[in-house]
Design a protein that fits this description.
alpha+beta; Barwin-like endoglucanases; single chain; two-stranded antiparallel ribbon; 326 residues; six-stranded mixed sheet; 13% strand
Protein backbone atom coordinates (compact mmCIF):
# COMPACT_ATOMS: atom_id res chain seq x y z
CA UNK A 1 0.00 0.00 0.00
CA UNK A 2 1.20 3.57 -0.60
CA UNK A 3 2.83 4.91 2.57
CA UNK A 4 0.71 8.07 2.59
CA UNK A 5 -2.59 6.27 1.88
CA UNK A 6 -2.50 3.16 4.06
CA UNK A 7 -6.21 2.44 3.54
CA UNK A 8 -5.86 2.26 -0.27
CA UNK A 9 -4.57 -0.58 -2.38
CA UNK A 10 -1.31 -0.09 -4.25
CA UNK A 11 -1.80 0.58 -8.00
CA UNK A 12 0.22 -2.56 -8.75
CA UNK A 13 -2.12 -4.63 -6.56
CA UNK A 14 -5.16 -3.23 -8.35
CA UNK A 15 -3.64 -3.92 -11.78
CA UNK A 16 -2.55 -7.45 -10.83
CA UNK A 17 -5.99 -8.31 -9.46
CA UNK A 18 -7.53 -7.10 -12.68
CA UNK A 19 -5.22 -9.37 -14.70
CA UNK A 20 -6.18 -12.36 -12.54
CA UNK A 21 -9.88 -11.52 -12.92
CA UNK A 22 -9.62 -11.23 -16.71
CA UNK A 23 -7.52 -14.41 -16.93
CA UNK A 24 -10.17 -16.32 -14.98
CA UNK A 25 -12.90 -14.94 -17.24
CA UNK A 26 -11.05 -16.20 -20.31
CA UNK A 27 -10.21 -19.57 -18.71
CA UNK A 28 -13.80 -20.19 -17.63
CA UNK A 29 -15.10 -18.72 -20.89
CA UNK A 30 -17.28 -16.47 -18.87
CA UNK A 31 -19.30 -14.99 -21.70
CA UNK A 32 -21.34 -12.73 -19.47
CA UNK A 33 -20.01 -9.66 -17.74
CA UNK A 34 -21.76 -7.16 -15.55
CA UNK A 35 -21.89 -3.67 -17.05
CA UNK A 36 -24.05 -0.81 -15.80
CA UNK A 37 -26.14 -3.24 -13.70
CA UNK A 38 -26.95 -5.29 -16.80
CA UNK A 39 -25.67 -8.63 -18.05
CA UNK A 40 -23.95 -8.31 -21.41
CA UNK A 41 -22.72 -11.18 -23.53
CA UNK A 42 -19.15 -10.93 -24.82
CA UNK A 43 -17.32 -12.97 -27.43
CA UNK A 44 -14.15 -15.04 -26.81
CA UNK A 45 -12.24 -12.42 -28.78
CA UNK A 46 -13.45 -9.74 -26.40
CA UNK A 47 -12.36 -11.85 -23.41
CA UNK A 48 -8.92 -12.20 -25.00
CA UNK A 49 -8.67 -8.47 -25.58
CA UNK A 50 -9.78 -7.72 -22.04
CA UNK A 51 -6.91 -9.82 -20.74
CA UNK A 52 -4.45 -8.09 -23.08
CA UNK A 53 -5.58 -4.67 -21.89
CA UNK A 54 -5.28 -5.75 -18.25
CA UNK A 55 -1.73 -7.01 -18.84
CA UNK A 56 -0.87 -3.76 -20.60
CA UNK A 57 -2.19 -1.76 -17.64
CA UNK A 58 -0.17 -3.93 -15.25
CA UNK A 59 3.01 -3.33 -17.24
CA UNK A 60 2.36 0.42 -17.27
CA UNK A 61 1.72 0.43 -13.51
CA UNK A 62 4.95 -1.51 -12.96
CA UNK A 63 6.90 0.95 -15.12
CA UNK A 64 5.40 3.94 -13.31
CA UNK A 65 6.33 2.41 -9.96
CA UNK A 66 9.86 1.46 -11.03
CA UNK A 67 10.86 4.43 -13.19
CA UNK A 68 8.07 7.00 -13.17
CA UNK A 69 6.07 8.37 -16.07
CA UNK A 70 6.35 12.12 -15.47
CA UNK A 71 8.53 14.74 -13.83
CA UNK A 72 6.05 15.90 -11.17
CA UNK A 73 2.76 14.92 -9.62
CA UNK A 74 1.22 11.45 -9.56
CA UNK A 75 3.63 8.90 -11.02
CA UNK A 76 6.58 11.26 -10.63
CA UNK A 77 10.02 9.81 -11.27
CA UNK A 78 11.11 11.39 -7.98
CA UNK A 79 9.05 8.83 -6.05
CA UNK A 80 10.00 5.86 -8.24
CA UNK A 81 11.94 2.83 -7.01
CA UNK A 82 14.82 3.73 -9.34
CA UNK A 83 15.14 7.17 -7.76
CA UNK A 84 14.49 6.18 -4.12
CA UNK A 85 16.33 2.85 -3.93
CA UNK A 86 18.97 2.90 -6.67
CA UNK A 87 19.97 6.44 -7.65
CA UNK A 88 18.61 8.41 -4.73
CA UNK A 89 21.00 7.39 -1.98
CA UNK A 90 22.55 10.40 -0.33
CA UNK A 91 26.29 10.53 -0.49
CA UNK A 92 28.01 11.83 2.61
CA UNK A 93 29.69 14.23 2.86
CA UNK A 94 27.75 16.37 0.42
CA UNK A 95 26.08 19.78 0.25
CA UNK A 96 23.38 21.51 -1.78
CA UNK A 97 22.46 25.18 -2.14
CA UNK A 98 21.13 27.72 -4.63
CA UNK A 99 23.46 28.77 -7.44
CA UNK A 100 24.45 32.44 -7.56
CA UNK A 101 26.82 34.58 -9.68
CA UNK A 102 30.48 34.74 -8.73
CA UNK A 103 30.27 38.51 -8.38
CA UNK A 104 33.63 40.08 -7.60
CA UNK A 105 35.25 36.82 -6.47
CA UNK A 106 37.06 36.41 -9.79
CA UNK A 107 36.43 32.65 -9.83
CA UNK A 108 38.31 30.63 -12.41
CA UNK A 109 36.53 28.10 -14.61
CA UNK A 110 37.58 25.27 -12.26
CA UNK A 111 36.40 27.03 -9.09
CA UNK A 112 33.20 27.61 -7.15
CA UNK A 113 32.63 29.71 -4.06
CA UNK A 114 31.01 28.14 -0.99
CA UNK A 115 30.15 29.49 2.48
CA UNK A 116 31.98 28.16 5.57
CA UNK A 117 28.90 26.19 6.63
CA UNK A 118 28.97 24.09 3.45
CA UNK A 119 32.76 23.80 3.60
CA UNK A 120 32.54 22.24 7.05
CA UNK A 121 29.88 19.82 5.82
CA UNK A 122 31.98 18.75 2.80
CA UNK A 123 35.13 18.37 4.89
CA UNK A 124 33.25 16.71 7.75
CA UNK A 125 34.51 19.31 10.22
CA UNK A 126 32.76 20.92 13.19
CA UNK A 127 32.40 24.56 14.13
CA UNK A 128 35.72 24.57 15.94
CA UNK A 129 37.51 24.53 12.56
CA UNK A 130 38.50 28.10 11.73
CA UNK A 131 38.01 29.72 8.33
CA UNK A 132 41.79 29.82 7.85
CA UNK A 133 41.97 26.06 8.40
CA UNK A 134 39.08 25.54 5.98
CA UNK A 135 40.90 27.52 3.29
CA UNK A 136 43.97 25.33 3.65
CA UNK A 137 41.95 22.10 3.59
CA UNK A 138 39.92 23.16 0.55
CA UNK A 139 43.06 23.87 -1.44
CA UNK A 140 44.23 20.28 -1.02
CA UNK A 141 41.45 18.47 -2.85
CA UNK A 142 38.84 18.41 -5.60
CA UNK A 143 35.08 18.23 -5.16
CA UNK A 144 32.38 17.13 -7.58
CA UNK A 145 29.80 19.66 -8.76
CA UNK A 146 26.46 18.35 -10.03
CA UNK A 147 23.32 19.99 -11.34
CA UNK A 148 20.32 17.73 -11.93
CA UNK A 149 19.43 16.22 -14.26
CA UNK A 150 22.81 14.87 -15.37
CA UNK A 151 22.37 14.16 -19.09
CA UNK A 152 25.99 14.07 -20.27
CA UNK A 153 29.59 14.10 -19.09
CA UNK A 154 29.56 17.86 -18.40
CA UNK A 155 26.79 17.56 -15.81
CA UNK A 156 29.14 16.22 -13.12
CA UNK A 157 32.43 18.10 -12.90
CA UNK A 158 35.43 18.25 -10.54
CA UNK A 159 36.04 21.73 -9.13
CA UNK A 160 38.05 23.49 -6.47
CA UNK A 161 36.16 25.26 -3.70
CA UNK A 162 36.93 28.69 -2.34
CA UNK A 163 35.41 30.23 0.76
CA UNK A 164 32.82 32.95 0.09
CA UNK A 165 30.36 34.86 2.21
CA UNK A 166 26.63 34.14 2.14
CA UNK A 167 24.64 30.94 1.99
CA UNK A 168 24.79 30.08 -1.75
CA UNK A 169 27.19 28.29 -4.10
CA UNK A 170 28.79 30.84 -6.42
CA UNK A 171 29.51 29.80 -9.99
CA UNK A 172 31.57 31.46 -12.74
CA UNK A 173 29.50 32.47 -15.75
CA UNK A 174 31.36 30.18 -18.16
CA UNK A 175 30.35 27.12 -16.15
CA UNK A 176 26.60 27.54 -16.59
CA UNK A 177 25.96 26.34 -20.15
CA UNK A 178 26.90 22.65 -20.00
CA UNK A 179 25.36 22.34 -16.52
CA UNK A 180 22.08 23.74 -17.83
CA UNK A 181 22.09 26.10 -14.86
CA UNK A 182 21.10 29.70 -14.36
CA UNK A 183 20.53 32.08 -11.50
CA UNK A 184 16.75 31.95 -11.10
CA UNK A 185 16.65 29.65 -8.09
CA UNK A 186 18.43 26.56 -9.46
CA UNK A 187 20.24 24.45 -6.91
CA UNK A 188 23.52 22.63 -7.39
CA UNK A 189 25.14 19.92 -5.28
CA UNK A 190 28.72 19.27 -4.22
CA UNK A 191 30.16 15.89 -3.26
CA UNK A 192 33.44 15.11 -1.55
CA UNK A 193 33.72 11.96 -3.70
CA UNK A 194 31.71 9.89 -6.17
CA UNK A 195 31.73 6.14 -6.89
CA UNK A 196 34.36 5.07 -9.39
CA UNK A 197 36.08 8.43 -9.51
CA UNK A 198 39.42 8.44 -11.42
CA UNK A 199 42.73 8.67 -9.64
CA UNK A 200 43.75 11.82 -11.52
CA UNK A 201 40.64 13.95 -11.18
CA UNK A 202 42.30 17.00 -12.73
CA UNK A 203 42.03 15.39 -16.19
CA UNK A 204 38.28 15.95 -16.04
CA UNK A 205 38.17 19.54 -14.80
CA UNK A 206 36.18 22.04 -16.90
CA UNK A 207 39.20 23.85 -18.37
CA UNK A 208 40.53 20.55 -19.69
CA UNK A 209 37.19 19.71 -21.34
CA UNK A 210 36.39 23.25 -22.50
CA UNK A 211 36.67 22.31 -26.18
CA UNK A 212 34.78 19.29 -27.49
CA UNK A 213 36.84 17.55 -30.16
CA UNK A 214 33.94 15.46 -31.46
CA UNK A 215 31.50 18.32 -31.95
CA UNK A 216 34.30 20.81 -32.71
CA UNK A 217 32.79 23.52 -30.56
CA UNK A 218 33.51 25.20 -27.20
CA UNK A 219 31.65 23.85 -24.20
CA UNK A 220 32.57 26.32 -21.49
CA UNK A 221 32.15 29.94 -22.53
CA UNK A 222 30.31 32.90 -21.01
CA UNK A 223 26.74 33.77 -21.99
CA UNK A 224 25.46 36.26 -24.54
CA UNK A 225 25.76 39.24 -22.18
CA UNK A 226 29.48 38.62 -21.84
CA UNK A 227 29.86 38.06 -25.57
CA UNK A 228 28.19 41.39 -26.20
CA UNK A 229 30.64 42.87 -23.69
CA UNK A 230 33.49 41.39 -25.73
CA UNK A 231 32.23 43.24 -28.80
CA UNK A 232 32.26 46.51 -26.90
CA UNK A 233 35.63 45.64 -25.38
CA UNK A 234 37.30 45.15 -28.75
CA UNK A 235 35.86 48.41 -30.02
CA UNK A 236 37.63 50.35 -27.25
CA UNK A 237 41.40 50.52 -27.88
CA UNK A 238 42.32 51.18 -24.24
CA UNK A 239 40.14 48.38 -22.85
CA UNK A 240 41.31 46.03 -25.55
CA UNK A 241 44.97 46.66 -24.69
CA UNK A 242 44.38 46.08 -20.97
CA UNK A 243 42.58 42.83 -21.77
CA UNK A 244 45.36 41.53 -24.01
CA UNK A 245 47.99 42.43 -21.42
CA UNK A 246 46.08 40.63 -18.68
CA UNK A 247 46.00 37.44 -20.76
CA UNK A 248 49.70 37.80 -21.54
CA UNK A 249 50.66 38.23 -17.88
CA UNK A 250 49.04 34.91 -16.95
CA UNK A 251 50.71 33.10 -19.88
CA UNK A 252 47.37 32.45 -21.53
CA UNK A 253 47.18 31.77 -25.28
CA UNK A 254 47.26 34.96 -27.32
CA UNK A 255 43.96 36.44 -28.43
CA UNK A 256 43.50 36.52 -32.21
CA UNK A 257 42.19 40.05 -32.65
CA UNK A 258 42.09 39.67 -36.45
CA UNK A 259 38.90 37.62 -36.01
CA UNK A 260 35.48 38.95 -34.99
CA UNK A 261 35.17 38.79 -31.18
CA UNK A 262 32.80 35.80 -31.07
CA UNK A 263 34.90 33.74 -33.49
CA UNK A 264 38.02 34.85 -31.64
CA UNK A 265 36.51 33.53 -28.40
CA UNK A 266 35.85 30.11 -29.95
CA UNK A 267 39.35 30.06 -31.41
CA UNK A 268 40.88 31.03 -28.06
CA UNK A 269 38.98 28.34 -26.12
CA UNK A 270 40.08 25.69 -28.61
CA UNK A 271 43.72 26.62 -28.02
CA UNK A 272 43.38 27.25 -24.29
CA UNK A 273 41.66 24.02 -23.25
CA UNK A 274 43.60 20.88 -22.48
CA UNK A 275 45.79 19.40 -19.74
CA UNK A 276 47.82 22.61 -19.37
CA UNK A 277 44.82 24.94 -19.16
CA UNK A 278 44.46 27.37 -16.29
CA UNK A 279 40.88 28.06 -15.25
CA UNK A 280 41.87 31.58 -14.15
CA UNK A 281 42.17 32.58 -17.81
CA UNK A 282 38.38 32.40 -18.16
CA UNK A 283 37.96 34.79 -15.22
CA UNK A 284 40.01 37.40 -17.12
CA UNK A 285 37.63 37.21 -20.08
CA UNK A 286 34.57 37.44 -17.84
CA UNK A 287 35.97 40.35 -15.82
CA UNK A 288 36.89 42.52 -18.80
CA UNK A 289 33.74 41.63 -20.77
CA UNK A 290 31.37 42.49 -17.92
CA UNK A 291 33.26 45.72 -17.30
CA UNK A 292 32.65 46.75 -20.90
CA UNK A 293 29.05 45.60 -20.72
CA UNK A 294 28.42 47.83 -17.70
CA UNK A 295 28.48 50.88 -19.99
CA UNK A 296 25.53 49.52 -21.97
CA UNK A 297 23.59 47.04 -19.80
CA UNK A 298 20.66 47.11 -22.23
CA UNK A 299 22.89 45.40 -24.84
CA UNK A 300 22.20 47.97 -27.55
CA UNK A 301 18.43 48.10 -27.05
CA UNK A 302 18.51 51.70 -25.84
CA UNK A 303 16.86 50.97 -22.52
CA UNK A 304 17.21 53.41 -19.67
CA UNK A 305 20.03 52.87 -17.22
CA UNK A 306 19.41 52.57 -13.49
CA UNK A 307 20.54 56.19 -13.04
CA UNK A 308 18.15 57.41 -15.76
CA UNK A 309 15.27 55.44 -14.31
CA UNK A 310 15.91 57.00 -10.91
CA UNK A 311 15.41 60.47 -12.43
CA UNK A 312 11.94 59.75 -13.75
CA UNK A 313 9.29 61.82 -11.92
CA UNK A 314 7.22 58.75 -11.16
CA UNK A 315 10.14 57.32 -9.19
CA UNK A 316 11.72 60.50 -7.93
CA UNK A 317 8.48 62.07 -6.68
CA UNK A 318 6.10 59.15 -6.45
CA UNK A 319 3.73 60.90 -8.87
CA UNK A 320 0.76 59.08 -10.38
CA UNK A 321 0.87 58.23 -14.07
CA UNK A 322 -1.83 60.78 -14.96
CA UNK A 323 0.18 63.58 -13.27
CA UNK A 324 3.06 62.98 -15.68
CA UNK A 325 1.30 62.44 -18.99
CA UNK A 326 -1.71 64.79 -18.69
Amino acid sequence: MPPDRADELHPLTIALRNVIRKANDRKNKNSHVRRHNQDQKVTPERLENNLRYAIRDLMQAAYDHAVGSRATGEGSSKSSVLRRCVLGHRRIPSARANAAPAGTLGLGLDEVGIPPLLARALLNKNNSTTDAELVELLQQRWFWLKRDPVLHRWGLLPVRCRLAEGDVIRLPASLLGPLGADFDGDTVALFASVPGQPEDISKYRPSTLAWDVTMERPMFLPGKQYRYGLNRLMADAARRERFLQALKQTHAPAWNDTLPPIKALDDWIQRASGPNADGRWWSIIEEHAIEALAEDPSMGLGLLSAEQLAQLPVLACGAAKKDIFD
